[in-house]
Amino acid sequence: MADKNKNYLKRAFNRKAANFSNVDFLHPIVRDELLERLSMFRLKPLHSLVLGGGGGELATALRGLYPNTNCVSIDSSEAMSELAQQQGDVLCADMLELPLTDNSVDLIVSNLALQYGANAQGSLQSVLNEINRVLKPGGLLLTAFCGNGSFAELRQSCARDNYEHFDALPDLHNAGDEMLKAGFRDPVLDTELLTITYSSFDKLIHELRALSATRQISRRRKGLGGKAYWQQTRLNYESQRNVDDKLPVTIELVYAHARGGEAPKPAEPAEYSVPLSRLLGRGPRKMTTDDPTDED
User: Fold this and answer.
1) Strands 247-259, 185-198: parallel, antiparallel or unpaired by DSSP?
2) Whole-angstrom Cα distance, residue 65 to residue 95?
3) With 264 labelled, which of 147, 220, 228, 236 sits at a CA distance of 20 to 30 A?
4) pLDDT tens readout for residues 53-79
5) For residues 11 and 217, is the Cβ–Cβ distance under 8 A?
6) Are the CB atoms for 77 and 61 separated by under 8 Å?
């Protein structure tokens, strides 16, 4: 991701750190899924790492799951790192430049952070290269990130003004290829669609902004557009109300795990898998964040 976007996101998370856990409904859902998936592996990691560790909740869970692990939470936000420091070891650093030696970590877990390491085209290649550098051969990477099917309704609704208001998000299949190119072994990827519904457009925008989910912007203009821009965007979104008269937000959650490996050989063929049982076995999930007392 471009430096100006990294700096923007760092400032955004610094501003929101103190109240983030009160508005964050998405990371806990994905964190529970990641922890459930970890139970499928027989691990005794001595050194583990949480990328995009936020307030330290996932790192705390890993320390409980693996009492003998030295778990470090890494986040580029100083304010988030200060919160996580209350619970354990923390490094405030960029995931594209990890301050760790090669082949030094047994387990790396990331909860909805990897997309912030993507470039403007949605490629995760650079961050995957860096992760595999510090991961021991045979060590485990387990991650979840927002795929390019996310926020389709909002992207479609944004008024046309010759500005790109979103960076591209990673593609499931491209990410699999990039994991192989980075040297990972046996990558497995699957996807789940989570639909969140709202009664109010204002609440929808407020919550997504609070999560910094909608603000990966590569060519921002100051203020993200004026009053006329948002009036048109609101009208466009209102036309997408569902049969229950709710406004949907679709998030494509991509889950991936792989083993660390040596640098890949250019001529070496490799494959990654997308298990159909996972793709077809669970239907799309739906949830609403509307409280009973909400008024439109």
Assistant:
1) antiparallel
2) 24
3) 147
4) 888 899 999 999 999 999 999 988 888
5) no
6) no
- With b meaning 16 or more CB within 10 Å and e meaning fewer, what string describes 169-207? bbbbebbbebbbbbbbbebebbbbbbbbbbbebebbbeb
Edge to edge, the sheet with strand 47-51 lists 89-92, 70-75, 47-51, 105-111, 135-146, 247-259, 185-198, 285-288
Report strand pairing: 105-111 vs 185-198. unpaired
Residue 234's nearest CA partner among 271, 209, 203 is 203
Tell me whether residue 274 is in a domain: yes
Would you give the DSSP letter of residue 18? H
Tokens at 59, concatenated: 């790192």
Token pair recorded at residue 251? 């998030």
The per-residue pLDDT for range 208-247, each reduced to its tens digit, is 877 765 544 444 444 455 678 888 889 999 999 999 999 9
Which neighbouring-strand residues pair with 251? 194
- Kindly report the CATH number assigned to the domain that includes residue 214: 3.40.50.150
Tokens of 70: 């030295």
pLDDT tens-digit series, residues 138-197: 999 999 999 999 999 988 888 676 666 677 899 999 999 999 999 999 999 999 999 999
Place of tokens 């964050």: 24
pTM, to two decimals:
0.85
* CA-atom Rg of the chain in angstroms: 19
Number of domains in the chain: 1
Q: How many CB atoms lie within 10 A of CB 32?
A: 11
For residue 262, tell me if it sits in a domain.
Answer: yes
Q: Name the nearest CA neighbour of 274 among 120, 147, 113, 100.
A: 147
In a domain, 18, yes or no: yes
Of the candidates 57, 60, 50, the residue with the CA atom closest to the CA atom of residue 27: 57
Q: Is residue 19 part of a domain?
A: yes
